[in-house]
Design a protein that fits this description.
The complex is a heterodimer of chains A (204) and B (624).
Chain A (H helix, E strand, L loop, with lengths): L3 E8 L4 H14 L3 E7 L8 E9 L12 E6 L2 H6 L4 E10 L6 H4 L9 H7 L3 E5 L1 H7 L6 H9 L7 H12 L4 H19 L9
Parallel strand pairs in A: 1-4, 4-5, 5-6
Antiparallel strand pairs in A: 1-3, 2-3
Chain B lengths: L12 E4 H11 L4 E4 L6 H7 L6 E4 L3 H13 L4 E6 H17 L5 E7 L13 H7 L3 E2 L4 H18 L3 E6 H4 L2 E4 L16 H4 L3 H24 L4 E3 L6 E6 L1 H9 L5 E4 L1 E3 L3 H9 L3 E5 L5 H8 L18 H12 L29 H10 L3 E4 L24 H12 L8 E7 H17 L5 E5 L29 H7 L7 E4 L4 H13 L4 E5 L15 E3 L18 E10 L5 E9 L19 E3 L14
Parallel strand pairs in B: 2-3, 2-4, 4-5, 5-7, 6-7, 10-11, 10-13, 14-15, 15-16, 16-18, 17-18
Antiparallel strand pairs in B: 1-8, 6-12, 9-11, 19-22, 20-21
Helix pairs in contact in B: 1-2, 1-6, 3-4, 15-16
The chains are: A alpha/beta (204), B alpha/beta (624).
Chain lengths: 204, 624
């Protein structure tokens, strides 16, 4: 079996690193060798965050090279476009439609892309987009957005969705029983959101 | 930050390099660990501070942290300190003499180079220090090796009675991998032995010890030949043999799985004879090291032919996509095209780090941007971001505390071109105590005409809000002595009437005080006293919203630079005078706003009002 490469991107404060951490826990629970790397220079200040997860029988370099990601998970629409070239040709992108406009756009120095998700499709990528915030708010708690994102990934991994769900619930659901149920629902909402446009294809 | 490491380490852990070093330090029976926060090394001490087994502290700077570690070592305890690359520059004075005295209890220094400069003012190669100070050097390639080498570093330190350096890089510190820890050991301090010939470094005592230092280096050189961390990895494709260390080893193995590799783990002193034998068995030798050509130069000096930085990039990480074309060139091959067509990176706006919503620094830079004829000497911290848009109100950033000396030099060196400009220095609370206080003393003593803005946000903000002597809390969050900045500045020679403590959210007071103080031709200090919005001391208040009908598009609020303010539409308006004015109408992302009120103050039409109380939420919610 080869190495699976998952690139997760977003901005500081969105939970990119936590999500990748949970994904790593799931892969570890199956006995894979796992490496996770991120560059988050000053990301706490609203900068770009990327996190790379590689797992397989043995992982050497922790970095995914451009054109080698099996899956790209974008927590923010323009960030997904920024890192689209990480995907291998024909790769799958799961993208939150949510936008975070930085001050350099607000003050008029740059433009936010009109439709970053459409641009990704024009590049020939399979893009599954959904509004993670709106789905989280359906359950009344914006903080569930992270779990929605993880649910969206769960059918595109080389292992059953149950493994990731368990890792999510172990992380987020242990403190309060009601959180356990909410996270379970958020996970399923994310899963369903990307199942609708096209049948789920597992990467391998 | 990860959760606290368990007291008894289970057999399989998933740790970052930083966490692995922390666990190794604890498992080695270390008694004292000290550091000043600095990316990418910060988490090492954060993790260590969670263990009840040893004393940990945030020190005021890296030099002090190393001296604390040395003192512990002198009494026979195992001691540790961690720092980022530039931190070792600060600590170097102590380092260069403790290599002469040597150490008693094992003393390990973890130094993290920010290769690729994700969060630093320069890129430098700390492996030089091992050579400069004649000390053993370890270069882990992943988290497991970070653990193993930190453990071995204590043993080597004690065997040779000198500090040992573990050199990390960002790609080690922040990469997680599986770690199997070894058995914990106990270590009791043997006690201090008075020995002035050894510990009192006056010339007469130092001379014989310098000779001993060189003897020690030769013994280290001999032992490096046998180090279990210097490993030959066989490979069938002998066209190029690689000599490599640190994370570059993983990239080399990933990219050229069939090539023979000599992996340097204990990389100073070099195991030269083994490397010579390795070179003899391959067609060409290529040294892959981050970032300076150190091993390469030493191999050449020993008469071992090799390639290195003549084909590889000098700056940044040596990742597979950079190795592949360089190696092809060395082999005289075409640069390999990737197997499949790849996407080119898409042009997307840059997303530089910004100040947070309601950051108390916003008011400072808004005010500085309103004033003309200023030269603003800056420093290291979140407030360095004041150099960016929309403020463009910071003119220099060099090193910790440099705002002070640079400002004084600007004042003393200025000619007619700068005669009418006021010199301002901007520094944060922690940076001030790290290395800024001495600069202020120099300003007062030498009658400098500098207005100092001391931004006290009660945290080491940029590295994640760690405590410092100004917060009144120690590394564990326990109550501690708190520095009184106004008294401290007065003690350093600033006149009492030239010291002002004020609220950075009150723009008129800030503006007036600053304007008044820059007119006074002597040192002034303006201290701001609101906490970082990311620490518990900060209390959000009722958020604001924009009444769309009242917004005139003047864009004054945008000049504050708060990320919660968003433009809804832009318009060009022609004034009666014929002048064209660009208008930008705004809204406030109320869910992100914490009610600091900075944007309300420059809003002439009073279009910004309190919104209904809402629970503040995070970015994921934000929309255009």
């Amino acid at each position: 079996m080869t190495i699976t490469n998952i690139a997760v991107c977003g901005i500081g404060g969105q939970g990119v690193m936590t999500a990748t951490e949970i994904l790593a826990e799931a892969a570890l629970s199956l006995g894979f060798d796992v490496k996770k790397t991120e560059v988050a220079g000053m990301s706490q200040r609203g900068g770009v965050v990327t996190s790379h997860l590689r797992f397989g029988p043995q992982v050497l370099s922790p970095q995914i090279m451009p054109g080698e990601a099996d899956l790209l998970v974008g927590f923010e629409a323009a960030e997904a476009l920024r890192w689209a070239h990480m995907l291998k040709p024909g790769g799958v992108a799961l993208v939150n439609q949510g936008r975070f406009v930085p001050p350099v756009v607000t003050i008029g120095l740059y433009d936010y892309p009109e439709d970053p998700i459409a641009e990704m499709r024009r590049l020939g990528l399979a893009v599954f987009d959904f509004d993670a915030s709106a789905l989280a708010m359906q359950l009344g708690n914006i903080r569930l957005g992270n779990t929605v994102m993880l649910g969206a990934m769960s059918d595109r991994l080389p292992f059953p969705a149950d493994v990731l769900r368990k890792a999510v619930l172990d992380r987020f659901g242990t403190r309060k029983p009601e959180l356990l149920e909410l996270n379970r629902e958020a996970f399923e909402l994310g899963r369903a959101a990307v199942a609708q446009p096209a049948p789920a294809q597992a990467i391998a | 930050m990860g959760a606290a490491l368990p007291e008894t380490a289970p057999s399989r852990l998933f740790l970052s390099g930083n966490e692995a070093v922390a666990l190794a330090v604890r498992d080695a029976g270390c008694r004292v660990a000290a550091a000043y926060p600095g990316t990418p090394a910060t988490e090492i001490l954060e993790e260590l501070s969670r263990f009840p087994d040893l004393y940990t502290e945030w020190s005021v700077n890296e030099k002090v942290s190393l001296e604390v570690a040395l003192g512990a070592s002198m009494v026979g305890a195992r001691a540790f300190c961690a720092m980022k690359h530039v931190g070792l520059n600060v600590a170097a004075d102590a380092l260069m003499t403790m290599t002469v005295t040597g150490t008693e209890g094992g003393l390990v220094i973890a130094v993290a180079d920010d290769v690729g400069m994700s969060s630093s003012q320069n890129e430098q190669d700390s492996r030089f220090w091992a050579r400069f100070a004649h000390l053993p050097l370890f270069e882990p390639a992943d988290a497991q090796e970070s653990y193993d080498m930190a453990r071995e570093a204590f043993a080597v330190s004690e065997r040779f009675r000198c500090p040992a350096i573990v050199r990390m890089t960002t790609r080690i510190c922040h990469v997680k991998g599986r770690v199997v820890p070894a058995e914990r050991e106990a270590h009791e301090p043997a006690g201090f032995v008075k020995d002035p010939q050894r510990w009192v470094m006056v010339p007469g005592h130092a001379k014989p010890r310098v000779a001993l230092m060189y003897e020690r280096e030769e013994a280290l050189r001999a032992s490096a030949q046998q180090s279990p961390f210097n490993v030959l990895v066989e490979g069938g494709d002998r066209r190029i043999g690689f000599v490599t260390s640190g994370p570059a080893y993983m990239h080399v193995r990933e990219t050229f799985p069939d090539a023979p590799v000599f992996k340097l783990g204990q990389s100073y002193p070099l195991p030269l004879e083994r490397l010579r034998a390795f070179a003899a068995g391959v067609d060409q030798l290529l040294v892959v090291e981050e970032t300076e050509p150190l091993v390469e130069s030493e191999l050449r000096a020993a008469g071992i032919a090799c390639a290195g930085k003549d084909v590889l990039p000098r700056v940044g990480e040596l990742s597979p996509d950079r190795l592949r074309p360089a190696v092809a060139r060395l082999r005289g091959e075409e640069v390999p095209a990737s197997a499949q067509p790849r996407l080119v990176p898409q042009q997307v706006f840059p997303r530089p780090p910004t100040m947070c919503v309601a950051c108390p620094h916003l008011g400072i830079y808004y005010t500085l941007a309103q004033l003309r004829n200023l030269t603003i000497s800056g420093d290291i911290g979140c407030y360095t971001l004041g150099a960016g848009h929309p403020w463009n109100a910071l003119d220099t950033c060099i090193s910790m505390g440099a705002s002070m000396g640079v400002a004084l030099g600007m004042d003393k060196g200025r000619g007619p071109a700068d005669a009418k400009k006021a010199v301002i220095a901007v520094i944060g609370d922690s940076t001030f105590m790290h290395m800024g206080m001495q600069g202020l003393l120099d300003i007062t003593w030498n009658r400098g005409n500098v207005t100092v803005l001391l931004l006290d946000n009660r945290a080491v903000g940029m590295t994640g809000g760690q405590d410092n002597p100004g917060t009144g809390r120690d590394i564990h969050g326990e109550s501690a002595q708190r520095v009184d900045f106004a008294k401290l500045c007065e003690a350093l020679g600033v006149k009492k009437e030239r010291i002002h403590t004020l609220d950075p959210y009150e723009l008129p007071t800030l503006f007036k005080t600053l304007r008044d103080e820059i007119k006074v031709p002597e040192p002034s200090v303006i201290i701001t006293d609101r906490p970082c919005v990311l620490i518990d001391d900060y209390k959000p208040t009722q958020p604001y919203k924009v009444i769309a009908d009242k917004c005139t598009g003047c864009a004054n609020c945008i000049d504050v630079g708060c990320p919660a303010i968003h433009v809804t539409r832009r318009e060009t308006q022609v004034k009666p005078s014929g002048k064209e004015v660009e208008l930008a109408f705004v809204r406030i992302e109320t869910s992100a706003c914490t009610g600091c009120g900075l944007c309300v103050q420059p809003c002439a039409p009073e279009a910004i009002v309190h919104a209904l109380p809402e629970h503040p939420v995070k970015f994921l919610h934000a929309k255009i």
